[in-house]
Amino acid sequence: MKPFIMKTADTRGSFSPSLIIGIVATAALFCVPSFVQSPYALHMMILLFLSTIVGESWNIIGGYTGQYSVGHAAYYGAGAYGTLILLHKWDIPPWYGMWAGIAAALVLSLIIGSICFRLRGPYFVLASIAVAEIVRITVLNTPGLTNGAEGILLSDLPPLTIGGTVITDFVSKVPFYYISLVLAIFTIVVTWLLQNSKLGYYFQAIREDQDAAHSLGISLKLYKNIALAISAVLTSLAGSFYAIYIKFIDPTTVLALDLSVQIVLIAIIGGIGTIYGPMIGAMVLVPLSEALRSNVIAQGLINSGLVREDSGPGIFLKEHLAHAHVLIYGILVVVVILFMPDGVLGFVKKLTKKRG
Amino acid sequence: MTFSVFVQALISGILVGGVYALIGIGLTIIFGVMRVINFAHGDLMMVGMYLTYFLFTLAGIDPFLSVIITIPLMFIFGGILQKVFINRIIGTLPQNQILLTIGLGLIMSNTAMLAFTSDYKILTTTYSSSSVNILGISVSQPLAVSFLITAGITALLYWFFMKTDTGQAIRATAQDREAAQLMGINVKRMSIISFGLGASLAGTAGALISPTYYIFPQVGSAFTLKAFVITVLGGMGSILGATLGGVIIGVVESVGAVTISSDWKDVLVFSIFLLVLLIKPAGLMGKSRM
Predict the structure, then answer these.
(1) Which residues does residue B121 pair with via DSSP β-bridges, in sequence order?
(2) What is the pLDDT of residues B53-89, one digit of tens each?
(3) Residue B133 burial by Cβ neighbours in a 10 Å radius (0-12, 13-18, 19+)
(4) Residue B228's closest chain A neighbor by CA?
(5) Chain B residues bordering chain A (beta-carbon distance below 8 Å)
(6) Directed axis angle between helix A257-270 and helix B219-234, to 10°?
(7) What is the chain A residue with the closest CA to B84?
(8) Of the residues A34, A207, B66, B186, which has the fewest C-beta atoms closer than 10 A?
């Protein structure tokens, strides 16, 4: 028997302090571009927001409803491809195209839900992977629409009008910073509203014990599908944003199994079924994998004198460490599962409780 | 399409299916004994492929002969993985088991990338592209040899599970872990042996397929998926089912490639997988464990 944990009780209790922290943090984040000009720092923040969005989105179906989808790349890809195909083929601005991405993700989630939610546990995981792979192969093999393996490269972006201001300068990272920040806040607010709503309680009841929830009259099929649809729409928003921001997509970057796994890991490493979990997961994973990717770690080892730059290992690390940034995901997930089954957040909570 | 092309596709499908069966049997043993779905299975196969590659390029050992070295090495590797990692999470949430093996797989594939770069390596033997002609149908020689080895190993496994004490103890553990423990069976040891067996079968499959396949660090994930399809199709936990599943998937792929298109063969395989999950989730030879 799984222990029954009422997670909702303590989140309600800590409602006001966390809201204040949230508002202060949000205000601070909105001011960041006025002080920080470095495009690289802004880029890192954007990646952080993007990871938070996908982590929180997955958390709705995986963390709150307990359905471990390992096929979220399908929705991410639906958003990315929906947006860029419309722009590339018919010159429809991405600000409208992303709605097509959302629609595509929604339809896809309903199809996937109707197939996969008949299955439970590991079988559901396997089915979600299979469907996502079918989507990837289909995109790969319909080059007429999707450019196939070549991917879609976006040359320039049409201007965006919000209220009265027209934004045309997309070389700067500032507009993207604000868009991704707003999207991340939106996702968090949706999750927060869900967590404290009747719908959210249904989701959590399904997670704790499907059969018990069913016997109380909660339609498993309906509520699992609703959770997946919300999760899919939010994930597709992240995909659309990624496509517009990076300006290049192909099946290996937005539809691969690796991406699905990374999305899950963001939530798992932080701590699932909580609002802060995916944020913490993103804060742990993005800097770490970016440090590996940009060779900061290899350079650091050389600078600290541990490894000589011209020696064999030095050259080796400089050349290859950057390619292995996913290694950190693997090591972290093993450590987290073995030693912190409630994620980093749960681990920290346990430590502080012990001390207090 | 002529009849002979079809027969040729059918035969090469069956031959490849033999190797697939090995991958599937490995996964099904691990699942049967531990109830853990091993997401690192393809990566274990990748390790086997690199082992074979380096045994061939550095020591000049023939890939098919190198199986004798690969099997014990992979057995030890798998046993260590089980002892250090998997034994700790038996009986916990299935999600955690899945994630742990995903993590182990990521570590394996990325370590391989770190060590050997992501370049494709090709193991070329003198017979890599040679074929034998049987009744007007040409059969790839490395595939035929690997099929024979596969058949030998499967027969050996059957003997091991049916006739030896350890084999019977493993089957007892698979049937009922607690009852087996009460009967004095060291279930942790059986788990280590089973994971070792699973790993060595995956490694052997890697060795057998390496003369006809590209070797690269990410090769595992495609085979992990294939291994799932095979075991679910045959019935999770059933060795006979995995053998059957392997051959069916091999044939579907190879006949699908010539009748439809090789680009879409994986879609075909995954569709069959979904259909089986929906219509007969217990698989062809398995009992329902849902």
Answers:
(1) B215
(2) 999 989 888 888 899 999 999 999 999 999 999 888 8
(3) exposed
(4) A126
(5) 37, 85, 88-89, 92-96, 98-100, 102-107, 110-111, 113-114, 117-118, 221, 225, 228-229, 232, 263-264, 266-267, 270-271, 273-274, 277-278, 281, 290
(6) 90
(7) A338
(8) A34
Helix (H) or strand (E) holding B10: helix B3-34
Cross-chain Cβ contact B267/A137 below 8 Å: yes
At position B142, the amino acid (one-letter code) is P
Which residue, among B122, B115, B232, has the nearest Cα to A127 in the 3D structure? B232
ipTM of this predicted complex?
A: 0.83
| A72: number of Cβ within 10 Å | 30
- Whether the pTM exceeds 0.90: the reply is no
Mutation site, A146, A337, A338, interface B, largest B CB count within 10 A: A337
Whether residues A324 and B111 touch (CB distance < 8 A) is answered with: yes
CA-closest candidate to residue A287, choices A234, A227, A246, A328? A328
- Give yes or no for a contact between B278 and A120, defined as CB atoms under 8 angstroms apart: no
For position A15, what pLDDT does the model report? Answer: 56
Beta-carbon contacts of A40 under 8 Å, excluding residues fewer than 6 positions away, are none
> Among residues A320, A269, A270, A313, which one has the least CA distance to residue A293?
A320
> Which of A115, A131, A330 lies closest to B110 in CB terms?
A330
Query: What single letter denotes the amino acid at residue B144?
Result: A
**Which domains are assigned to chain A?**
7-256 (1.10.3470)
Cβ–Cβ under 8 Å, residues B24 and B230: yes
Residue B276 is which amino acid?
V
